[in-house]
Amino acid sequence: MDKETRKEFRKIDKKFEEIDERFEKIDERFEKIENSLSHCVTKIEFHAAIDDLKENMMTKSDYNVLMDMLEQMLPEFQTCQRNNILTGSRLCDMDDKIANHENRLRVLES
């Protein structure tokens, strides 16, 4: 190879090295952009989670409505509970009567 050709090749090599350096800088910039975007995605996911919480969270007015409903249901619940106690008591009394009747039948049969 002659000197002119070598000189041209060196120029071309130098150009390629410069281009490689520029590509490295561009790669670094893309990495920074990628990191920033991933941070933005994290922020977007965070805001979506907050929106979901707001949508599903009980507010004071929701709490008040629930408490009003429970207060309206409480007397009914208490009445049902009293009725269950009375029914249980009556069943115990009936068991005693049935046992007494069975004893009397046995005495009559013998």
Helical content (DSSP H or I, runs of 4+): over 70%
End-to-end Cα distance, whole Å, is: 137 Å
Structural class: mainly alpha
Low-confidence spans: pLDDT under 50, at least 5 residues? none
> What coarse outline follows from CA principal-axis ratios?
rod-shaped
Indicate the multimeric state.
single chain
Q: β content, as a range?
A: under 5%
Give me the count of strands: 0
Number of domains: 2
- Count of DSSP helices? 2
Main sheet record: none
Order of helices and strands: HH
Mean pLDDT: 86
Write down the Rg. 44 Å
Can you tag this structure with a few keywords?
mainly alpha
How would you describe the overall organization of this protein?
The structure is a single chain. The protein has helices at residues 3-56, 60-109. With 110 residues, it is mainly alpha-helical. 95% of the residues lie in helices and 0% in strands. The protein contains 2 helices and no strands. It folds into 2 domains: 1-57; 58-110. The radius of gyration is 44 Å and the shape is rod-shaped.
In short, what is this structure?
With 110 residues, the protein is mainly α.
Describe how the helices and strands are arranged.
Layout: H1 3-56, H2 60-109
